[in-house]
Amino acid sequence: MNEFVLPLPDDFHIHLRQDQALAFYAQDIAKQFGRVLVMPNTLPPLTSVQSILNYKKAIQEAAPRLETLLSFKIHPQLKLQDLEDFKKIGVLIGKYYPAGATTNSEDGISDLEHIFPVLSMMEDLDIVLSVHGEEPSAFCLDREAAFIPKVQLLTEKFPKLRIVFEHLSSAKAVQAVLDMPDTVAATITVHHLTMTLDDLIGENLMPHHFCKPIVKTPEDREAIRQAAFSGNKKFFFGSDSAPHLKEKKESFCGAAGIYSAPVILPILMQEFEKEDKLNRLANFVAGFGADFYGIARSTQSIRLIRKEWQVPLQIHGVVPLAAGQTLQWSLA
Ligand SMILES: [Zn+2]
After folding, report:
1. How far apart are the CA of 104 and the centre of ligand 1, in A?
2. How far is ligand 1, taken at its centre, from the CA of residue 305, in Å?
């Protein structure tokens, strides 16, 4: 097989950053995806209708064919009226960041109970809760597992609240999502599907493979692969593509985030083909996520061809995932 047609995919977790860089990142992802759910951890964060609409407009101007799905960042002072206003402009998710868990999360929530009133309103308004599921006080490889009881608690306290456990990185979290009710789903990235801690520190220190949550053990990666290839509707694609300039990564205090946007579909094709699961790729990148969020599935398509290409060492000053590697599938 030398050609493969997919429904035009959705990326349910992406960071497009701000200012001039935003245009580059939006245009890169628009080459492969029709819709993107943009994360709100900009500076300042997206916490008002006006800031969300301004952000959407900036993306539209940069990449007119890319449809932007909207989010806001949860903070304890949000009011019912704010949430109703978000709902009116079509916001899909409220994003919960534990304080200090990742990029620009210093103003995150230190105690989950502080936002129970907000979560209750989100449950009533049917706004999805998206969680960066890591407990910052735990050891770095255990942070995701340490967060699982909190998600469990949320499912008990707010049984109708739909929750997305973002960017799964551990076997324990995969199992937890399987065990939880159908109100809980999860996104999976291309880097957690393909890498382990060895790719970050096993031989040389590879700062461009550093992200939160950190890539983990071979067993963890295997569990994530099985989830992605399983055809279970609880697992769908979210890239968590999170570019930082080369000098921000190769630095005294390197930033967390992997720029996967330029290579997503070629790598997904490669991985699903390797496992003989290409028949499950369409639902993973262009089906289950839309179903979970209650939006129509894509009616457009994109064609990939088997043709080698070499991933550039840098794209707009950022070192992308798989830089310098040869990939087998290209966009037609
Ligand atoms: Zn993210």
Report:
1. 10
2. 29
| 307 CA distance to ligand 1 middle (Å) | 30
Question: Ligand 1 center to residue 39 CA distance, Å?
Answer: 7
Catalytic, 198? Answer no
Residue ranges for the chain with pLDDT beneath 70:
none
Token pair in block for residue 67: 């449809």
Whether residue 315 lies inside any domain: the answer is no
50 CA → ligand 1 middle, Å: 22
Specify the CATH number for the domain of residue 231: 3.20.20.140
Distance, CA of 168 to CA of 268 (rounded, Å): 16
pLDDT score at 73: 95
Q: Which of 279, 269, 247, 276 is nearest to 327 (CA)?
A: 269
Q: Does residue 103 sit within a domain?
A: yes
Query: What distance in Å separates the CA atoms of residue 2 and residue 180, rounded to the nearest whole number?
Result: 39
State how far the alpha carbon of 37 is from the alpha carbons of 14, 129, 142, 322, in Å: 6, 13, 27, 23
**Containing domain of residue 133, as a range?**
10-300
Count of other CB atoms within 10 angstroms of residue 240: 26
Tell me if 182 is assigned to some domain.
yes
pLDDT at position 104, please?
Answer: 75
**pLDDT tens profile 172-183:** 999 999 999 999
Of 187, 172, 182, 247, the C-alpha closest to 217 is: 172
Q: CB neighbours (10 Å) of residue 56?
A: 19
> For 214-273, what is each residue's pLDDT tens digit?
999 999 999 999 999 999 999 999 999 999 999 999 999 999 999 999 999 999 999 999
How many domains is the chain partitioned into structurally?
A: 1
Report the distance separating Cα 253 and Cα 258, nearest Å.
15
Measured distance CA(223)–CA(12) in Å, rounded: 20
Answer yes or no: is 309 within a domain.
no
End-to-end CA distance of the chain: 14
Ligand 1 center–CA 11 separation, angstroms: 12
Catalytic residue among 126, 240, 276, 291: 240
